[in-house]
Write a structure and sequence with these properties.
This protein is an alpha/beta fold. The protein contains 7 helices and 5 strands, in the order βαβαβαααβαβα.
Amino acid sequence: MKSVIVYESMFGNTEHIARKVAQGLAEPGSDTVLRDVREVGPADLAASDLLVVGAPTHAFSLSRQSTRDDAVRQGADPSRASFGVREWLDTLDAAFPVAAERPRVAVFDTRVEKVRRLPGSAAKRGARVLRTHGFEVLGRPTSFYVADVKGPVTFGEFDRAREWGARLLQLVQGQPERDAS
């Protein structure tokens, strides 16, 4: 099985979560590719069974150039502001011109803990866009929490990300989900 995780990360938090999801997807004989959205290419996506997309929530949605520029003003690496998941999603029809060859997709985001209950998230928006492009989205979009805009990732979220990755692996392989209790 081949899984591809594509992430956008301004302060590193979404990247850290993506790495933990990759650990959950790891099993003997499987191939997991982890790519920054600025670096993912067609060869990375070829013959994939699962595509996992992760992005930070900016202004209750996927980032835009203006929100990435604002993150740079707050201390993010300027090279991370050039391109985001919002723009990348618009390239997927070209990457998967044959609908039958499209992998199943799961979507996550990172968001600030104190706005946990507010509507809107990058994951929800990303899942909606993917569905309109004909992708099957597995489960609900999932949010992982950070203490503040710059982080750090809150306690327990790394474990939850690994467990989420393992559940995704089970779903793609057709195994019933195991009760985590």
